[in-house]
Specification:
homodimer; DNA-binding; binds zinc ion; 3-stranded mixed sheet; alpha+beta; Arc Repressor Mutant, subunit A
Chain lengths: ~130, ~130
DNA sequence: TAACGCTGTGTAATAATATAACATTTATAA
DNA sequence: TTATAAATGTTATATTATTACACAGCGTTA
């Protein structure tokens, strides 16, 4: 059984917003949207984002400084993320590929480093933009 | 034969600095260091960084907003980068693993997306920090 | 109960990262 | 030569993210 996190009011408001979008949202765009719900300052947004990332409800797209909801119950540990990003329309999709995930999970370098997380971003052109 | 890029003065100054460091440097720390050489504004740094990334002389560590020199003549296309990052001491190493690179290069999703680039960052604890 | 640690809140200020706009200069190509 | 692309220098500004501080709520435990 997985521990069910209880989200606070601010966290819920922000998660709701991100989940309603199928594309990544930026922190200040989130801030703009939640002002009507009483969230007034950047820090309130960043604090909620940090928690949501930590518990795996959302992921940060590092190359875009944006946040997207995770739709895969299996990666809610936030430790293994793969995305494809269209450099033309900026469409982002989370990739779930068993073989690739396995390969990455099992990767060992020759420096004795102990990994506990990875993030992979593929860039290219989506079908619509080719 | 590979086309040898001719770097401009600013680009050379900034590449030199980054190559002398074995760890990633941040843009404003670079700016601070090159002020004595007549580079005065952030934009001058960011323009040089952009070019150097484009020609593969340096890579951006996206999760850290920092830039590291590429020591591998083979990835000077800047299209296929893998890094390991220690979350304790922030040590960054570029990884060259033939099998993993091959796997990533050959990866195809089921959406018909055409990839031309990827960036992979592993996080964990290095030998010293375990 | 009271004291404590932990997490979250609200607010203000500020730090850190990155780009826009403009005039000019330099390098390369036709 | 002309023209065209790439780089420069400068000022201003936009965007992203954190520090600092006072306080509130909650569960643990002395
Ligand atoms: Zn996910
Ligand atoms: Zn697209
Ligand atoms: Zn490289
Ligand atoms: Zn370390």
């Amino acid at each position: 059984m997985q521990k069910q996190e209880t989200l606070t009011k601010n966290q819920k408001i922000i998660l709701d917003l991100i989940e309603k979008s199928d594309q990544p949202l930026k922190a200040y765009s989130i801030l703009f949207d939640v002002k009507k719900k009483g969230i007034n300052a950047p820090l309130q947004v960043y604090r909620a984002l940090k928690k949501l990332v930590k518990i795996g409800k959302i992921h940060k797209i590092e190359s875009r400084n944006a946040f997207i909801a995770c739709k895969n119950s299996k990666c809610q540990i936030a430790k293994a993320t793969i995305f494809s990003i269209c450099e033309s329309c900026e469409d982002v999709t989370e990739i779930h590929d068993h073989k690739l995930s396995e390969h990455l999970r099992d990767f060992k370098d020759n420096k004795g480093m102990k990994y506990n997380k990875y993030n992979l971003e593929f860039f290219g052109l989506c079908k619509k933009c080719v």
